[in-house]
Amino acid sequence: MGWITPIWDVREPLDIYRTRTSTSVRAEFLGGEWRTVGIAKDLVIIAAPLVATLVVAVIVLSGRAAGFSTRIGTGDYNIVSGVIVSCVLISVLAYGLKRHPGQLARVVVACITVAGTTSGLVLFKLWFEITGAAPILFLSAIPLGYVGISWSVKGYYGSLSQRKSNVLVIGSATLLGALIGTSLSPLFTITFLGALALMDFLVVETNLLTRLTGTQRYGEVLSLTTLPLETSLVGLGDFLAYSILVATSFQLRGLIGALETIAFVLCGALITLQITRLRSKTAGLVIPISLGVIPVILGL
Fold first, then answer.
1. What is the band of 101 on the pLDDT scale with cuts at 50, 70, 90?
2. Residue extents of the structural domains in the chain
3. N or C: which end of the chain has fewer CB within 10 A?
4. Strand order across the 226-228 sheet
5. Phi, psi at residue 70, to the nearest 5°?
6. 3-state DSSP call for residue 227?
7. How far from 171 is each of 28, 60, 214, CA to CA, in Å?
8. Residues 141-190: pLDDT tens digits?
9. pTM for the whole thing?
10. Mean pLDDT of 223-233
11. What's the rounded Cα separation, in Å, for the pair 124 and 138?
12. Phi/psi at 5 (nearest 5 deg)?
């Protein structure tokens, strides 16, 4: 769900078994420079949805202050609820990956994109209510909703281009994560994210996913649930978890706390990307979530 696997392959110079020449040194330097630029681009791609999460969080909390609601339950969820939900979710995913991994991956991605599209429509409606716009103007959001649903269906059947798929998945994860993070109890979201990070670590370090799905089907699941960036494959769950965490931080500590969380998450992502250069794959949630949750805990 949340591992990062490098997709770059910098080959060694042809004279690897000989004394280094100026050509091999130059090739090594260019390879290192390319990695640095690629990692910087990856961090920008990770940071952009987190900044967008702030905008969404502002809309949700402004609407709540004005007496409007997203109509998403904000019940008294606690740590016990977070543990129960996490255990049920993990159990369902494990069973599905064992039986029908490819189909489950498609269903999960489609559910997130459809939920993200719905979240976008909810936020549009809330924004119109805050600004006092005429209700009929909400009809202008229908084409966007149609595009989101249409792309979700095409993505499920594998007929959506990679670029459109990336836009849809990142946008949906951002909208859904921001709505979840500003609507549910901070204790619940912290527990839930902690459980996901733990599961992410165990899955990556024990090769559990490969054992559940088999080597051949593992590649299919990986291609469906990760996004190819400049240097790495980043899991869809990573974007969702980061957005939830930033929105939760904004709910508790306002703009300053959210910016601190973004900074910590990006530092964690940078460390993870650097580790991935050495290990080929690394859990993508453990370090960013562990660092990013610090401002949230301080705000409790």
1. confident
2. 3-11+78-298
3. C
4. 226-228, 232-235, 3-6, 282-283
5. -85, -5
6. strand
7. 36, 17, 31
8. 888 889 999 999 999 998 999 889 999 999 999 999 999 999 888 888 88
9. 0.83
10. 85
11. 7
12. -120, 125
Instruction: Report the C-alpha gap between 79 and 296 in whole angstroms.
Output: 15
Q: What is the largest CA-CA distance in the chain?
A: 75
Amino acid at 11: R
Give the pLDDT of residue 22.
43
- CA-derived radius of gyration, the chain: 21
Task: Identify the CA nearest to 5 among candidates 266, 211, 282, 294.
Answer: 282
Is residue 94 pLDDT above 80, yes or no? no
CB neighbours of residue 242 within 10 Å: 32
As a whole number of angstroms, the distance between CA 253 and CA 182 comes to 12
Helices in the chain by DSSP H: which ranges? Answer: 22-65, 79-99, 101-131, 142-156, 162-183, 186-206, 208-213, 215-225, 236-279, 286-298
* DSSP code for 16: T
DSSP string, 123-173: HHHHHHHHHT--GGGGGGGHHHHHHHHHHHHHHHTT-S-HHHHHHHHHHHH
Q: What is the pLDDT of residue 75?
A: 52
Look at residues 169, 187, 191, 171 and name the one whose alpha carbon lies nearest to residue 179.
Answer: 171
Tokens representing residue 125 in the block? 């409606």
**pLDDT, tens only, 188-208:** 888 889 988 988 888 888 887
Residue 88, pLDDT above cutoff 50: yes
Distance of CA 154 to the CA centre of its chain: 21
Q: Are 230 and 9 in contact (CB under 8 A)?
A: no
Q: What percent of the chain has pLDDT over 90?
A: 32
- 3: helix, strand or coil: strand
